[in-house]
Amino acid sequence: MGDQQRSFSTLFAAAQQHDEYWTERASLEFTEELTRWMEQQGLSRKDLAEKIGSSQAYITKILKGNVNFTLASMVKLTRALGAELRIELGQVKDAAEAELDKEDREEPQEARRQPGRRSA
After folding, report:
1. What is the domain-level CATH number for residue 58?
2. Nearest-CA neighbor of 65 among 99, 20, 96, 105?
3. Residues 43-56 pLDDT 10s
């Protein structure tokens, strides 16, 4: 392993010690899931905004991660997409272990039944 890789791993491990890292990670996961559901349903930002009685600019801010979500806003967005918001707790893993788990969970796009649903 090169010095750059070790340096990145060290920085990444240090970042994981801060709540800000976990907040940004949760925000990113939520916005990626919203985007998948919107794409599956063929909805634009304008369409989603109309469904929740908001502006397209607000949806753009959400998808860029420029909004501090409340549970109420997350529920409103997911319900507008015909989805259910699920929040789960999981064991904290180191960066390498988490990356391996992520690769194991990823499925080809065509194999997905619905965004947010894992195959058994």
Report:
1. 1.10.260.40
2. 20
3. 999 999 999 999 99
Give per-residue pLDDT as tens, 59-87: 999 999 888 889 999 999 999 999 999 99
Structural domain of residue 63, as residue ranges?
3-111
* Rounded Cα distance, 21 and 78, in Å: 23
Which positions ≥6 away from 102 have C-beta within 8 Å?
none
Contact 115, 33 (CB under 8 A): yes
Distance CA 110, CA 112 (A): 6
Q: How many separate domains does the chain show?
A: 1
The reported pTM is: 0.70
Contact 48/77 with Cβ under 8 angstroms?
Answer: yes
